Amino acid sequence: MITLENVCKTYKVSRRDAGFSSAFKALLHRRCELIHALDNVSFTIADGEMVGYIGPNGAGKSSTIKILSGILTPEEGTCQINGLTPWKNRIEHVKNIGVVFGQRTQLWWDVPVMDSFELLKEIYRIDPAVYRRNLEELTDMLSLGELLRTPTRQLSLGQRMRCEIAASLLHDPKILFLDEPTIGLDAVSKLAVRDFILKLNAEKKTTVILTTHDMQDIEALTSRIILIGKGKILLDGVIDDIREGFESTEEGLASFYRSHDI
């Protein structure tokens, strides 16, 4: 069970005009602005649920995922995941979660993927029998095969993303956070990733939180959506709440953004 209550997160951002004189003035008098990334965000996600967490750029999606995974600490509010506070019980918490950031990697760039997997095995202290079982299952389900012996830097984006997902699941996490997992993928790779996530949820009841701008991913994988804008939860419902009255989900979402000035 995932529970967020009145979570707030604020960033201090420096601002200055272009030009040498402005840069010099900023050395003496730095002008800062407070950005409220999350403003009293609250929601609950049940075990085994698949939820789409959507919103425009800068809405607060990634900040939420980082708080849920224990990377960031909020200024206010509470977060409980299976009885643990992510940023206070981080070592115990990360044993139960897997995280995939579409624009970042947890694989070492210049070594074969298998070497990265072996290192993750030691980091998570995975039992050798569990590791071998999971590696065999993931290799088969994600068609990794020869990719395991290939350095990460030589993989295509689609190949790397399949390896990233496998890396996040080697330790049998109960919760999987997917932040733009299909960004830049071709149609075949997207379908493969979607099919795998559906199978993972059906067979292991893994809780999945998906953040993406690709509404086809949302429609294919989730029944519930949580929409955030300007740091506030604007909608917690189903995809039909947005799509109703429009020819496509994208049109409905664009209209929703305009109506809320986001």
Entry keywords:
Rossmann fold, three-stranded antiparallel sheet, alpha/beta, 262 residues, six-stranded mixed sheet, 10 helices
Question: Can you describe what's shown?
Answer:
The protein is of the alpha/beta class and 262 residues long. It has a single domain, classed as Rossmann fold (3-Layer(aba) Sandwich). Helices cover 38% and strands 26% of the residues. The longest helix is centred in the last third of the chain and has 18 residues. The model has no long low-confidence stretch (mean pLDDT 89).
Find the count of extended strands (DSSP E, 2+ residues).
9
Overall body shape: globular
CATH homologous superfamily heading:
P-loop containing nucleotide triphosphate hydrolases
Query: Any idea of the CATH topology?
Result: Rossmann fold
Main pleated-sheet profile? 6 strands, mixed
Query: Which structural category fits the helices and strands?
Result: alpha/beta
Determine the N-to-C terminus distance: 30 Å
Number of helices: 10
- Number of domains as seen in the coordinates: 1
CATH architecture call: 3-Layer(aba) Sandwich
Kindly report the average pLDDT value. Answer: 89
Order of helices and strands: EHEEHEHEHHHEHEHEEHH
| Strand arrangement, major sheet | 5-6-7-3-8-9
Q: What's the quaternary structure here?
A: single chain
Unreliable stretches: none
Q: Roughly how many Å is the radius of gyration?
A: 20 Å
CATH C-level: Alpha Beta
